[in-house]
Amino acid sequence: MDALFFYLIAIVAVASALAMIFGRNATHSVLLMVVNFAMVAMLYLTLGAPFLAAVQILVYAGAILILFLFVVMLMGNDPGPLWEQLRIQRPAGLLFTVLLIAGLVPVATMANVTGGQALAPLSDDPKVLAESLYSSYLLPFEVTSLILLVALVGAVVLAKRSAYRTEREEELHLDEV
User: Fold this and answer.
1) Within a domain: 27
2) φ/ψ (deg, to 5) at 135
3) Cα 88 to Cα 9: distance, rounded to the nearest angstrom
4) pLDDT digit string (tens) for 35-56?
5) Is 28 left (phi over 0), alpha (psi -120 to 50) or beta?
6) How far is it, in rounded angstroms, from Cα 149 to Cα 154?
7) Which domain CATH number covers 74?
8) DSSP assignments along 94-149, one per residue
């Protein structure tokens, strides 16, 4: 029964992730990301880690997605002329997907060989998690925070460009009239 529940949650998580990636509407994609994060939290619950599930909901579904939604509302749903300038985006995305899958194959193989003990066991104690995060995993934690900061600054820059472009187009339109 647990395996059936796990596979059901996994199918919904993968389906919502695919719908989010291939969706045309940015607002719908953010809402599908909420579904995806909720399913990941449920996967944490099935693994016996309720603290991580709560953090998943509070931090990702609560804080991060609100930021994403604000950026989408600030920039609008229209990808605009920037979308046409990024022709390399699809081939680069395909390349990075292949690299990610190639990197996951050894991890999955190791997990099958060791009986699923490739990763450290999840703990429900916040103190143990904090000690592990800020000692063993300090560098990945800091790199993640830097990536999020760069993404936020990039979103603000793109929104300012879009706002400037819209103001400029309105001025040109008013000059024509």
Assistant:
1) yes
2) -120, -70
3) 33
4) 999 999 999 888 888 888 888 8
5) alpha
6) 9
7) 1.20.120.1200
8) HHHHHHHHHHHHHHHHHHHHTTS-SSPPP-S-HHHHHHHHTTTTHHHHHHHHHHHH
- For the chain, the straight-line distance linking the first and the last C-alpha, in angstroms and rounded, comes to 69
Q: Which residues contact 20 (CB under 8 A, 6 or more apart)?
A: 29, 32, 33, 36
Name the strand (E) or helix (H) holding 64: none
Indicate the pTM of the whole model. Answer: 0.56
pLDDT in tens, 74-86: 766 665 555 555 6
Q: Which residue has the tokens 């000059």?
A: 175
Residues in the chain: 177
The tokens for 100 are 């990610």
103 within some domain: no
Please report how the helices 138-176 and 65-75 are oriented relative to each other, as an axis angle in degrees rounded to 10.
20
10: Cβ contacts below 8 Å, ≥ 6 apart:
39, 43
Same domain for 74 and 127 = no
